[in-house]
Design a protein that fits this description.
It comes from [Mycobacterium] zoologicum. About 30% of the residues lie in helices and about 35% in strands. It is of the alpha/beta class. The radius of gyration is 19 Å and the shape is flat.
Length: about 270
């Protein structure tokens, strides 16, 4: 499936009007099935779908490692010699993994904001996380952090073409870029990054920095905690609940990472210089 389509638009500027084609990021639904049962539907930009699903299952506490999955593949349509349906991806869990007991209509329709809030959600993440970042001794220089947003933006090919995608990137403690993923949903971009790490045997993500191109919501903070990321940085603001969760989990949360400035809301001991 393509990630970019072109649509006609009327462009107005300085009193003149022109008709031209504009590049748009593709948005399509992806249904996630586990052992034949629907689990979640998310609106995503096609590409890296297996990474997305792996990251989602890990950050929801359903799997802890790549060995917890036997297969992950697109489903087939109906009829004789049916084609693959690239908007449905089915995962088969290993026998030792408990099957999720989830009502799809209740709270697993994934949107750009989290569906839970308050102290109960903080407790739920604390109980579910297997890779808490609190004990990670990593230190990252302020200079390395301030150089990261430019690296992310330079690697966002799809954003450069469409202007309509969020980005997430993973860096090592020295500031070297490991992976970048883009998606119409900021949560999907993060899941793709975490899914890449899971595929490459890097979970828990000790000694890393997760950078997101927008704000730091509770949902993104929860995903960082579940994957064992010790430092989450955002170019925009965090939410109050994101800061609360970061403090509870021992995650370093950086916001407003722009130019040579930043705010460090929790665990400032990890940012040096």
């Amino acid at each position: 499936m393509g990630r970019v389509v072109r649509r006609n638009a009327r462009h107005l500027r300085a009193g003149t009007t022109t008709q031209r084609e504009e590049a748009l990021a593709v948005e399509e639904p992806l249904e996630i099935r586990v052992n034949g049962a629907p689990l979640s539907v998310t609106m995503r930009t096609p590409g890296a779908d297996v990474e997305l699903v792996q990251g989602f299952l890990l950050t929801e506490g359903i799997i802890a490692g790549r060995d917890d999955m036997v297969t992950a593949r697109y489903c087939c349509g109906t009829g004789q010699n049916p084609p693959q349906d690239y908007n449905v991806l089915e995962v088969t869990l290993a026998e030792h993994v408990p099957r999720p007991d989830v009502d799809l209509t209740r709270n697993f329709y994934t949107s750009s904001s989290c569906g839970v809030c308050g102290k109960a959600s903080l407790e739920a993440v604390r109980l579910a996380s297997r890779y808490g970042p609190g004990d990670d001794p990593v230190r990252v220089s302020a200079a390395a952090l301030t150089a990261m947003p430019d690296q992310l933006r330079a690697a966002q090919d799809m954003f450069a073409r469409t202007g309509g995608l969020h980005g997430a990137a993973l860096f090592d403690a020295g500031g070297s870029l490991l992976v970048v993923r883009e998606d119409v949903g900021r949560h999907n971009a993060v899941d793709k990054v975490i899914g890449w790490a899971l595929e490459h045997g890097r979970v828990p993500l000790n000694g890393t920095v997760l950078l997101v191109s927008g704000r730091a919501s509770f949902e993104l903070t929860q995903k960082a905690v579940m994957a064992g990321v010790p430092l989450l940085a955002a170019v925009s603001a965090p939410s109050s609940l994101a800061v609360d969760l970061a403090a509870e989990a021992g995650l370093t949360l950086v916001g407003f990472l722009r130019g040579d400035a930043m705010n460090v809301y929790t665990r400032p001991d990890r940012v040096i210089g």
